[in-house]
Amino acid sequence: MGLKFPNEDKDNLIDSVKKYVEEFKLPSIDVPKLSTDFFESMDIKKVVGIAALLMLMIIAILSMTFGSFSNNSTAKGEKVKFKITEGMDAAEIARRLEKTGVIESGFKFRVLAKFKGYENQLKIGSYNFTTGMTYDEVFTKLLAGAPEVLTVTIPEGFTVKDIANRLSNLGIVNYDTFISKARDFAPFDYIERKRNTFYDCEGFLFPDTYEVTTDMTSEDVLYMMTDNFDYRLSSAMRAKAQEEGLSIYELVTLASLVEKEARYAEDRPIIAQVFFKRLKIGMPLQTDASLQYLMDAPKEDVSIADTQIDSPFNTYQHMGLPPGPIANPGVASIEAVLYPANTDYLYFVADRNGHNHYAYTYDEHLDLVYQYR
Fold it and tell me: What gap in Å lies between CA 255 and CA 253, rounded to an integer?
């Protein structure tokens, strides 16, 4: 009895074989264009037989071209430190395994990963391999995972970009992925989502020393750091902010400015007081730190041209607070905003050692600038 074999099924079978051949760059197989009548005249046994024959042809070509999958001829025994980081795919892993001598052929590795369904199961982590391992040995390790515990310190005043750089240099996260996730990461209601900020979570990644593992994703790290912020922001701090008429977002934004302007502890509450006074009298905050946030690299001194940068973060051109935090402040800067100094300064300038000097009037301020800068 003939088997009905619709055109689309016939074409799918032929296309699948061609696609498989092309994907693994096998020597070309001439797959004839068979007519619908030919397929309709075949019975099920013939169809199965042809499919089996095609698979045998593929396996035979692989074996003849690349040899056995179970062995490799790479010299054995040399230790290899191997790290898989976020964003690495099976192709890149295969290339690096071959390059370091862990396996003989990255191509074989990819074919096996494809056949066994391992491509998306290879785990992030740091591995101890040796050269000349079998493919089964490598897959066993990569499927089980081998996370390494690392200690990383994020200093006060680091930005999202600074954190991404440090973590990516340690091989914990992929820089681009971390940056992308941070753009709209806001796990708590007090983290306001604003169109004119760069990263929703800027200011809320608490600076601290963390133990991280190399199998953590960017999102895992972001949750860890924002959870820490939420824990460190005590109920007393929240109550004090409410008493002062500050939202948590405003509190952190002001604290980030203090963090970037004050190198020494004694300066923090005085600078916080200066900012509060300027806000009270309707004076622009005019903090260089907000301009530095817009630059690719820090400058020792901002220029007059820098004060003309077109951005809502330019506190020379825009009144009030910037749209959001410009860095991730520590507890000391947050407390400085909650408990500012009892002074009446309106201006400050830092000397070359980072110590700030204060003035009541603009003329006094100009004298200090001339003296210390």
Answer: 5
Largest CA distance in the chain: 104
- Amino acid at position 159, single letter: T
Count of CB atoms situated within 10 Å of the CB of 59: 10
State the pLDDT at residue 370.
87
Q: What is the pTM of this model?
A: 0.67
pLDDT tens string 139-151: 988 888 777 788 9
Segment (H or E) for 90: helix 90-99
Residue 17: pLDDT over 70: no
More confident of the two residues 260 and 36: 260
Q: What contacts 333, CB < 8 A, 6 or more positions away?
A: 156, 255, 256, 258, 259, 262, 268
Domains detected in the chain = 7-66 (no CATH), 79-144 (3.30.1490.480), 158-231 (no CATH), 247-372 (no CATH)
Name residues whose C-beta falls within 8 Å of residue 162's C-beta, 6 or more positions apart in sequence. none
